[in-house]
Write a structure and sequence with these properties.
The protein is mainly beta. The chain contains no helices and 16 strands. The protein has a 4-stranded mixed beta sheet with strand order 1-7-6-3, with no helix packed on it.
Length: 171
Amino acid sequence: NVTVTVNKLPAPLVANNLTLKVDESKFIDPTIDVQYLRFICSDDTVVLVNATTGKVTGLKGGKVNVTLIFDGNDKYMANETNITVTVNKLTSTITVENDNLVVDVDGTVKINASTNSDADLEFISLNTTVVSVSGENVTGLIGGKVNITVRVKETDRCLAKSTNVSVTVNK
């Protein structure tokens, strides 16, 4: 009687870490075809991993571990590896139609501004004796010049950003 023992080979499972932005997608590119792998993500609120294709999509800023699992087959032993996926927040932009405004005392002017951020725009007077601010509306109180800060706060998806609008109040 002859017994033949066939040892399975180690599965060559390797993949590189990924860095992407919120809303960006990239594919995990392992050394074993993704159709033979399973993926487990440490935090599926940060990235979405397509279990069929290995496509990773950033949902919010953060860093997660993705475990790639190969269950083995007739030729190769089971194996797993971890990669780190880093998702960078989007750079917020603020666009102001006119960053030098003029208004009379008791008059009101609107700051026309927009942003790509998911945060609301905020308008803050750096001198509340010269103007009052209500949302995007600026009312002149006394003659003078003041800067209004237009800003968005940092969110899970976007970085904070601010810019200034100069307002001159005529007497």
